[in-house]
């Protein structure tokens, strides 16, 4: 009986602790659970910030039916890594430069983070970042995809992304003429 | 929407073309140029018009590393082609960035067309950087700034021989930040724009040559920060919420700004007989002057930071420097 009572108390304590714990549990479309720092989730994702503020976070795992476990694992991994990284001086100062850079360049760790992803995982992560309103992660993943296009001819880009050319020869020629101005900087 | 998970491990189908346009825009905006984005039209029918409604257009004409200065005419034609093809009703950022040393004609009426485009479509930020190089043969030099109702920030770095004329009516309702640099302007037009056509303007930065009429009178309840480098002529400022002012070149100035916290006075000497400050608090956070404007310390009793620029001739002995120090102490 003594033991049972102790167990009950422990259960109570656990419940109280969960109410104001500093992580949230997210559930992927295939039912896997992931824990992520509440602070990082709220800071990096407008959607999660809204759910945390609105109290719609489920302690048993908030359902994210749009996101598969592989993509969600990457999202959570990104949030945790982000929480531990210190922004570089370049990132802080870029906002005051004369020729304002439209995007902040990815940090070294962010580059490594997306470089290790497979083609499929990268595209799943772009959509997950978009779904969760994660502006910075969207920046980093889109930057990676644009890097895969840079300096390549249309033929080469089609090959990288497996895009099927559904134009006729005549149509291609017509577009090429329309876009004559766009070939000067080659 | 199909769960993203259903696709994972699906191999090599064309994932990129399945992304919604807004995500393709995120990707295209990170390519090195609008030209590179436009060339994706050639990929497939899905890509035909994606670039024509990107939310930002940043068109730059820059010199390749070590290469010759670019020619303006080629760039002018490509900007026209982009604007003709552009299909979105609004864009949030429109920027023309020409290399400082770009050569060739730059007729004002060509630039005016780009400003007209901005007037119709822009809801956000406008940046224009024109090259420094002046072409003697450019006789068409008057540029009219159309009303940009939805622009929030406007930065115009023009060239000294361009006369920037401002619209007689209409309101820049959303504008909070305006910079006009290196152009010729009419003093009364500048005053009218700021005083009655920009109700939300917080930051104003003008570095221009005045022509026709030289007096500028500014009355603004929104202005917080004001950099003024223009002359010759009289500057009048009535701004209840102004916190920061920099003045250069004004031969006369009358500044009523009860909430002033930071003052910079450059170039010409401050002379209390023709330059006056009306302030409420006689305390400043920062005063930045040179030795010809020491009398500007008079309207203020205390200052947290004093930046005093002294030019001391080499022949000055240490004793003279010491005595100057004593005078400053007093």
UniProtKB/TrEMBL annotation, chain A:
Alphabetical list of Gene3D superfamilies matching this protein: Potassium Channel Kv1.1, Chain A (3.30.710.10)
Domain SKP1 component dimerisation as annotated: residue spans: 136-182
Pathway: Protein modification; protein ubiquitination
Region (Disordered) residue spans: 1-21
Domain SKP1 component POZ: 23-84
Domain of life: Eukaryota
Stored SUPFAM superfamilies: POZ domain, Skp1 dimerisation domain-like
GO BP term, example: ubiquitin-dependent protein catabolic process
Alphabetically ordered keywords of this record: Ubl conjugation pathway
Protein family per UniProt: Belongs to the SKP1 family.
Functional summary from the UniProt entry: Involved in ubiquitination and subsequent proteasomal degradation of target proteins. Together with CUL1, RBX1 and a F-box protein, it forms a SCF E3 ubiquitin ligase complex. The functional specificity of this complex depends on the type of F-box protein. In the SCF complex, it serves as an adapter that links the F-box protein to CUL1.
Quaternary assembly: Part of a SCF (SKP1-cullin-F-box) protein ligase complex.
PANTHER family: SKP1 (PTHR11165)
UniProt-recorded name of the protein: SKP1-like protein
Automatic annotation (TrEMBL), chain B:
Domain F-box: 19-60
Superkingdom of origin: Eukaryota
One Pfam family it belongs to: F-box
InterPro entries: F-box-like_dom_sf, F-box_dom, FBL15-like
Protein name as it appears in the record: F-box domain-containing protein
Source species of the chain: Digitaria exilis
